[in-house]
């Protein structure tokens, strides 16, 4: 005869794990979409206007250096992206 307690435990555990996997998959998918949107924001100077074109070069470069971001030989949008990721609160 089958022990019903064990059968019930197995069903409950399996269902619970399936729910956890589904939640994790949903969270991962949402995070991937957010990262994609974030990267798309910095694809061009036009899309990232507020942080690249409208922000004075001297202030951006000085702010980046103060936060330990290398500026030599890099595009302004790359520097702004790194600065925003590091200290702008994205993903915090």
Descriptive overview:
The protein is an all-alpha fold and 92 residues long. It has 2 domains: 1-41; 44-92. It has helices at 4-41, 57-66, 76-87. Helix 2 crosses helix 3. The chain is rod-shaped and about 80 Å long.
The rounded distance between the terminal residues' Cα atoms is 54 Å
Low-confidence stretches: none
Q: Quote the beta fraction.
A: under 5%
Element-level helix/strand string: HHH
Secondary structure tally, helices: 3
Number of domains: 2
> What global shape is seen?
rod-shaped
Question: What percent of the residues sit in helical stretches (DSSP H or I)?
Answer: 55-70%
Largest sheet, described in full?
A: none
Structural class: mainly alpha
Using the CA coordinates, give the radius of gyration. 23 Å
Number of strands: 0
Mean pLDDT: 77
Topology:
Elements: H1 4-41, H2 57-66, H3 76-87
Helix pairs in contact: 2-3
Summarize the structure.
The protein is mainly alpha-helical. It contains 3 helices and no strands. The protein has helices at residues 4-41, 57-66, 76-87.
């Amino acid at each position: 005869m089958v022990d019903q307690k064990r059968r019930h435990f197995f069903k409950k555990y399996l269902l619970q794990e399936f729910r956890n996997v589904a939640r994790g998959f949903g969270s991962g998918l949402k995070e991937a979409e957010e990262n994609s949107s974030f990267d798309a924001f910095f694809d061009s100077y036009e899309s990232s206007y507020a942080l690249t074109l409208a922000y004075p070069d001297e202030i951006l470069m000085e702010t980046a250096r103060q936060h330990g971001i290398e500026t030599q030989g890099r595009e302004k949008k790359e520097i702004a992206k790194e600065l925003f990721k590091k200290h702008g609160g994205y993903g915090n």
